[in-house]
Design goal:
Length: 314
């Protein structure tokens, strides 16, 4: 995966003061751990089993970012004028009698000034989550919490992301206190999508593909409805199944409001306030009859877009 040069927009939209951790969950073949494929994190195998360090460890160099993290960085200051520096050179010269003499001379040359940047020394905490059928689940947590809005928070976060990409090939950003992901599609009674910045066009393509496979008339669907909700800049999306097959959740955590809509004509919009994960496990009938205070049902007629916007911002 190529390096990240910008903070993911879902993080940019979080409130100032939000505390963010960079983590990675992975599943690995036990044999690979036994064979020391993770020795850069002091996960050591003896040919049969492996051991995980009990304390956070400093990753050994695997590339540019882990090298900077472990050893620091030398910056070339091209904004400053070049300076004269010297390097030593051993030579053999002859004196006026013709005899050889070994001498050391200082040779001048011009170069830009250098500045030494201290290593970041960010440690990684490793937790074994489970082991089954020859596979091991591991959790890696970088021991550097980013407080959004503090000085250089973007630079620090981008470094963490790229460090994780270099070490593991992936990353996730989660809330310090709840460990809920800011990037992944919510893991609940809904179809799980890959982690990271997930383009809404990709979600639409999944829904469109499901429409084709259903052998239903495409005229019975209206994907532009979903475009409207994506334009409201939700924090996350999730695709439903079973009771809510075809629905997409658009979550607005700061407002504690969640919108469910379906591209299939004839389905209403549901707006949740509060615990959307629990409410979305109910049947439509249960939602309407048992949770009136937390649910608003909107039909796609008339000024429904204005009504949704007004409720969302109220």
């Amino acid at each position: 995966m190529s390096k990240i040069i910008k903070v993911p927009h879902k993080i940019v939209e979080l409130d100032s003061g939000t505390e963010i951790k960079c983590v990675f969950n992975g599943e690995f073949e036990k044999n690979s751990l036994v064979k020391n494929s993770f020795d850069f994190l002091n996960i050591v195998g003896d040919g049969i089993n492996f051991t995980i360090p009990s304390q956070p460890v400093l990753p050994k160099s695997k590339g540019k970012y882990s090298d900077q993290n472990e050893k620091g960085l030398i910056l070339v200051m091209k904004n400053l004028p070049k300076e004269t520096v010297y390097y030593t050179q051993d030579r053999t010269i002859k004196d006026w009698h013709g005899y050889d003499h070994d001498v050391t001379i200082n040779m001048p040359y011009q170069k830009y000034p250098r500045a030494k940047v201290k290593p970041n020394n960010i440690l990684v905490k490793i937790i074994k989550l489970g082991e089954e059928s020859g596979k091991v689940k591991l959790y890696f947590e970088f021991q550097d919490v980013i407080n959004k809005g503090e000085k250089n928070w973007e630079k620090r976060l981008i470094f963490l992301i790229n460090l994780s990409l270099e070490l593991f090939g992936s990353f996730d950003l989660v809330d310090k206190y709840t460990n809920k992901s800011y990037l992944k599609i919510e893991r609940t009674n809904w179809q799980i999508l890959p982690p990271g910045e997930y383009p809404f066009e990709k979600i639409k393509s999944i829904i469109s593909s499901n429409i084709d496979k259903s052998e239903l008339n495409r005229n019975r669907f209206d994907l532009t409805r979903l475009d409207f909700f994506d334009g409201l800049r939700p924090d996350f999306q999730a695709i439903g199944f079973e009771q809510f097959r075809g629905y997409v959740v658009f979550g607005f955590r700061s407002k504690n409001k969640y919108i469910l809509d379906n591209s299939k004509k004839g389905n209403a919009i549901y707006m949740f306030v509060g615990d959307w994960e629990d409410l979305s496990k109910k049947t439509k009938k249960e939602l309407i009859t048992q949770h009136n205070d937390n649910i608003v049902r909107v039909i796609h007629k008339g000024e429904w877009k204005n009504k949704i916007t007004k409720i969302l911002n109220s």
